[in-house]
Amino acid sequence: MKTLTFKTRKLVPLFAVALSLAMTACGDESEGRVEINDSAPAQVSDVNYTSGPGEVTLTWKIPASPSFMYSKVVYKNSKGEEVYKMYSKDHAKDGVMTETIGGFASVDPVDFNIYACSVRGNHLDATKISATPGAPAFLIVAETVDAEPAWGGVSVSYKNETVASVNIVLNYHMKSDASKKGSYSFTAAPNSDGAQFVGLLVSNNEFINGEDAIIELAAGDADGNTSAPRTIETRTKKVEKLDRAAWTFPGFADNYDAQIGYSSQEAGGEGAFPNGRVMAMLDGNEGTFWHTAWKQSSAYPHFFIIDMGEEKEVSNVTIRRRGGNNGTNIGQTFYTCTAAAANGSTPDDWGWTNQGWNPFDRNSDAHQLFGMKQVEKARYIKVYFSEKDKGGNFVMISEFNAYTPAE
Questions:
Q1: pTM for this one?
Q2: CA 178 to CA 279: how far, in whole Å?
Q3: How far apart are CA 376 and CA 355, in angstroms?
Q4: Which parts of 26-151 fold into alpha helices (H)?
Q5: Does the N-terminal peptide bond of residue 359 adopt cis geometry, omega within 30 degrees of 0?
Q6: What is the band of 32 on the pLDDT scale with cuts at 50, 70, 90?
Q7: 112/126 Cα distance (integer angstroms)
Q8: CA–CA distance from 294 to each of 92, 172, 270, 384, 396 (Å)?
Q9: How confident is the model at residue 104 (pLDDT cuts 50, 70, 90)?
Q10: CB burial class (10 A; 0-12, 13-18, 19+) of residue 395?
Q11: How far apart are CA 24 and CA 33, in angstroms?
């Protein structure tokens, strides 16, 4: 199957103008005929390349022919399919085109045919070059990926010393019951070395907890190429859900005013209590939800603070979006604070422990499980949504829970 890629928006108007002129020329000959130079341009020249991880960067000189409109690069992708990309002449700089083509899954040489084309695609023979991609980044990173037990899930470590982003992919199931399975993926940024907590979710609100799990680890790229999976067996550390009966939001009031325990809430436009209010996150009803204010002005950043009433060890939290609505956040940062560190009249002055940023899948109705960087006692939990976490204009959460180590 062929793919068509325009690297600039300027190519389409050029075609449209040319075709419009051609149609006009077919009208009243007394008004004059506009001729289109559709002869085959001269070939491109001085073709060179440099290698990158799973990619090559091609450079070539475009011809000075008046009829030249675009370059067409034809090659075979990693699946052996012949594909092509098209690049408008306007994308050239000082007469030289520079284009990076990636998605290669090996270091086998790739033959590229580069054509110089007129507006209707007329061209001479291709200028050819055989280019060798660099080692794919995902194959390099795949050798470093590992998973170790963590509270409520696993900690997936990786090292990406390349200049390309790599997708880390997990497919897993419970060892004692293969029907309880799931998958998860995240991105390892270029030049990064870290670990990502992964909760092994097997249903809307169930995860592999204190059980043996079979995990297939692989790495891949944006073009769907993946490494051969490596299978490991591990056991997650068991956690239990904390009782929310005594939990409160400091300063809660049934109005629009921001309080020390939350940035805003929609107290009038989402139906009867508790809809719209922060309290809806703690009522055990997935049909109710917190909604940041919209009848009155509110904007990111947003936050809420939960007072658990007493200190508990916090290992994990779960968040569920407002059901069926993806106009919410795409990430959040967690903080914890002990009773002794909650000094001062405003939470900004308290001694918060940064428990890390995590992405949030705003397209999922499942309870999403996150792990704390440090498992320690805390009385307060703060969830903070910065401007970079903005996925929709508001934050909408139906349920929030916290967990503690159980073994």
A1: 0.82
A2: 38
A3: 10
A4: 137-142
A5: no
A6: low
A7: 9
A8: 47, 40, 10, 18, 11
A9: very high
A10: buried
A11: 8
